[in-house]
Amino acid sequence: MADFSAVTTMDEVRCTTRGGYSDIQEGAQVVVTDASGTTVALGRLAYGSWNRHTGCVFLFNVEGVPGGHKFYGVEVSHRGRLQYTAEQVAQPLALTIGG
Predict the structure, then answer these.
(1) Which residue of 27, 29, 34, 38 sits 20 to 30 Å from the alpha carbon of 10, by its own alpha carbon?
(2) Helices H, strands E: what count in the chain?
């Protein structure tokens, strides 16, 4: 079962994070890099929506990501870059933290 101790529900729809997860919030930066670590596009997290099974969920969409790279890195806030293939980033990504 997921640990929701770092989540504050504002109502039945919206939620925020706190404590060690307080950087994961609406407006937090999403950085997309190429394989060498050069930033190629930027985005931001949308508001957090509450899901009783998974906790606080933040959607994001990064526009303007150039094609032609074999690998891309995705980093939310300061949480570390995760590497994905071009095929993977062409599909919706589901990133998790905590729990």
Answers:
(1) 29
(2) 1, 7
User: What residue type is assigned to position 91 of the chain?
Assistant: Q
The answer to the question of residue 99 being in a domain is no
For the domain that residue 55 is a member of, what is the CATH number? 2.60.40
Range of the structural domain that residue 38 is part of:
7-89
C-alpha–C-alpha distance, residues 87 and 78, integer Å: 24
Q: Name the nearest CA neighbour of 28 among 60, 74, 66.
A: 60
Question: What tokens does 92 get?
Answer: 């919706």
**Picking from 54-58, 69-73, 75-79, which range would have the lowest pLDDT averaged per residue?**
54-58
